[in-house]
Amino acid sequence: MTPAPPETRQGGRVRSEAARLAILEATASEFAARGYEHLTIEGIAAAAGVGKQTIYRWWRSKGDLVAEAVLEDRLLGERFHIPDTGDLRSDLESWLGAVFDMLAGPQGEGLLRSLIAAAADNADIGLRLRERIAGEGVAGGADDAASAESAEPSVTDRLRSAVTAGELPTRAPVAEIAELLVGAVILRALSRTGGDREAVARLVAAVVD
Amino acid sequence: MTPAPPETRQGGRVRSEAARLAILEATASEFAARGYEHLTIEGIAAAAGVGKQTIYRWWRSKGDLVAEAVLEDRLLGERFHIPDTGDLRSDLESWLGAVFDMLAGPQGEGLLRSLIAAAADNADIGLRLRERIAGEGVAGGADDAASAESAEPSVTDRLRSAVTAGELPTRAPVAEIAELLVGAVILRALSRTGGDREAVARLVAAVVD
Amino acid sequence: MTPAPPETRQGGRVRSEAARLAILEATASEFAARGYEHLTIEGIAAAAGVGKQTIYRWWRSKGDLVAEAVLEDRLLGERFHIPDTGDLRSDLESWLGAVFDMLAGPQGEGLLRSLIAAAADNADIGLRLRERIAGEGVAGGADDAASAESAEPSVTDRLRSAVTAGELPTRAPVAEIAELLVGAVILRALSRTGGDREAVARLVAAVVD
Amino acid sequence: MTPAPPETRQGGRVRSEAARLAILEATASEFAARGYEHLTIEGIAAAAGVGKQTIYRWWRSKGDLVAEAVLEDRLLGERFHIPDTGDLRSDLESWLGAVFDMLAGPQGEGLLRSLIAAAADNADIGLRLRERIAGEGVAGGADDAASAESAEPSVTDRLRSAVTAGELPTRAPVAEIAELLVGAVILRALSRTGGDREAVARLVAAVVD
DNA sequence: GTGTAACCGAGACGGTACGTCCTGTCTTAGG
DNA sequence: CCTAAGACAGGACGTACCGTCTCGGTTACAC
């Protein structure tokens, strides 16, 4: 497969990778420290040791910048672990409990809400947010092939294996079940409603009979 | 001896209801016009013909102000209609389809995302957002009694009647089913994923078997 | 005499005289320190402990600001002394020599050139610059009456007294003589041409026969 | 004393005359269009179709660049015509009137003030400005020999011929008279004071009897 | 011929300052 | 004592240029 022909550039200094990385690094750390609302381009530029114009040259808005940081796994890098004990219900409860525990913790408190605010600005962030929690994006792509083979299985992977194992009917709407659970997580994050053991059990029961 | 006799002493001007209403009105229209992010106190004050201090005297933040506007039903005033044909599945599909149609429309496009951004700031907005769509808040209160008697039934009402009618098992987690569906709506709003007929059917199928 | 009717102001905080003075003070000191070209609004605001908007609210440009500082005698406050020995020629030579000595000095070096640059921007500065050196503005006003009575006579005053004393013909163009001499000072400031004793003598000779 | 041997330059492209001319051309037209204050190196480079570095390689500052453009007669190219009718006074009045007319015109309005601002930055510009108007620099040099023979006589030339013709005394300070008149022009340009016929007459009268 | 060194256009870089907008506080005059 | 008006210190916005630093590409002299 031949690579795409290079853009017709006539001279000019090339983009500094060091600056790009420093900016994304700074964006991630400022985001974690202050949240999306109180994130400032000036603060990021200062933290990255970069001129403001270098940011505006490559990103059109705060939202685009955060989106790229999220896409590069600088925020929300890890998926949540889901076990595979053979009992789908208890596995989902473990996973959902872990997610709610993270939300209840000091770090997760604002982080998810900030990501939600960012997603309200920028579509890419919304898509990625969903993918990171559920383990599957809207449209399958090269990344999904890679993630399907990764050591750490996602909720969606677990649901698919449940179909194979006969725990769920063959035509069960796997992607939608994951979507509903992630949606519930987001809704509870927005309303600051924690999830105790009973709530988790009821949510899981609602989607897996 | 003070010159002012007690009886002529002014007790102080009372809060102007006209100003309060104008501010909430202006908040709602500015919110609809510009979204939560680009809402400004100065803009609201100017649109309401009011001094900034009058806003700061009674509300502590932009979030509080929007929350009160939402709570007074100036935004998101109507619940979404859900029919009762005796077939829960098709009734839920009708309702969910109507919600997604609203989101796809020009008005709903940004409105829900702005409300989500507002909810990320302010817990009350998140709770109210959930209640407005699903028809039930987290904790039952006086309002629920009123809404139960209102002419327009909510999704939660419909689910409860399904339990009574035997369409759902007696111990079905009604509130959580509504929560999951509302969460899915919010997640799709964030990721700009529309809901076609098949997607709606699958989401409903996932929660009502 | 009744005062002019007050502007129809309805409420609003009144302009802070402290801020106004601090700004003019800072303008003068920054001007002296850096010159007109390298004067910055941000620098003035910082030095005055004032927000930038407070400057932009009352002055439209750097030129206007410097103009007001000059008009308030914060720069170029003193006129140059001219003696009255009865010999006009030697008196003018004393005065002109003093002006050139000032220019040759460390302070005067850049100050006049900066004022010239400022005057190229702003008409008021040009007028005031002329008045400060020559002792007379273009159009006589209330200020001139005051200055005519001031203890320190200006070049123009000295020329007028020369007319009275018969040193100059009755119809001698007094204002124009002063103008020519001030113009020569400015021209030499621009071309960094100092004025030695002979040059001073020749300039004076050219205007007083 | 032998000068240091020239560096052994081996190879290397020679300076592009086309680029040099395009830069000076662009400098002149941008200067005329925007004035000295709003002249930018980037604007000149773009207008000349040249990289910024090509400018910085050969000129140290905006002032140097403008100075060279002025020295090459790209600005202020023509001297002002002075007739020789045998009547010095009326000849000077013609000349001075023409200069003031130029200043009053749309082109001259800002041009001289911009040159003055440039001169405040750069000594060469000040010297050249004086020479261009009066027809003589401070120190006689090779250029003066050339100008003395040029077809168009300068004010200084006219004054010198007046000495020869006996209109002025032998020891009249010719250079200083020109200097005073040029200075008055600059002063009036700075203070936006036009010169009507009477003012011109009085200025001339002040220096020639 | 062929290096090679200095030039060229282009344009990204770290910065500084611009002039605007908005924040939350304060100070007026007036009901 | 509330209200409309609006000035205040502060801070961030997004833009324009500064002067420097690469880039790939082009001469033109020295070998």
From TrEMBL, chains A, B, C, D:
<dbReference type="InterPro" id="IPR009057">
    <property type="entry name" value="Homeodomain-like_sf"/>
</dbReference>
<dbReference type="InterPro" id="IPR036271">
    <property type="entry name" value="Tet_transcr_reg_TetR-rel_C_sf"/>
</dbReference>
<protein>
    <submittedName>
        <fullName>AcrR family transcriptional regulator</fullName>
    </submittedName>
</protein>
<dbReference type="GO" id="GO:0000976">
    <property type="term" value="F:transcription cis-regulatory region binding"/>
</dbReference>
<dbReference type="Pfam" id="PF00440">
    <property type="entry name" value="TetR_N"/>
</dbReference>
<dbReference type="InterPro" id="IPR001647">
    <property type="entry name" value="HTH_TetR"/>
</dbReference>
<dbReference type="InterPro" id="IPR011075">
    <property type="entry name" value="TetR_C"/>
</dbReference>
<keyword id="KW-0805">Transcription regulation</keyword>
<dbReference type="InterPro" id="IPR050109">
    <property type="entry name" value="HTH-type_TetR-like_transc_reg"/>
</dbReference>
<feature type="DNA-binding region" description="H-T-H motif">
    <location>
        <begin position="40"/>
        <end position="59"/>
    </location>
</feature>
<dbReference type="Pfam" id="PF16859">
    <property type="entry name" value="TetR_C_11"/>
</dbReference>
<feature type="domain" description="HTH tetR-type">
    <location>
        <begin position="17"/>
        <end position="77"/>
    </location>
</feature>
<keyword id="KW-0238">DNA-binding</keyword>
<dbReference type="GO" id="GO:0003700">
    <property type="term" value="F:DNA-binding transcription factor activity"/>
</dbReference>
<keyword id="KW-0804">Transcription</keyword>
